[in-house]
Write a structure and sequence with these properties.
YefM-like fold; three-stranded mixed β-sheet
Length: 91
Amino acid sequence: MRFAGMKELKQKTRELLIAAEKEDIIITAHGKPTAVLHHIDPDDLEDYLFENDPAFRRKIEGAWNEYLAVDGTPIEKMIDNLEKSRVRKKI
């Protein structure tokens, strides 16, 4: 992990972007961390946006709460039930 100040970010943006392909870079302002420069592959962009979009997270949480409110089955229980049914079929 590397640290870079705002001045370095402004003067060496391209170099820092290349360096970020190998390691995260903490950007500092007045010696205090303010941001992280993290490399992202085009294939990972969609996942990153979904994981970090507050509106999307609220929708998922709302849907999950609605599911549980109508006696939905948690995924852990579904997996357990599927594994139990596989064992019964093998016997």
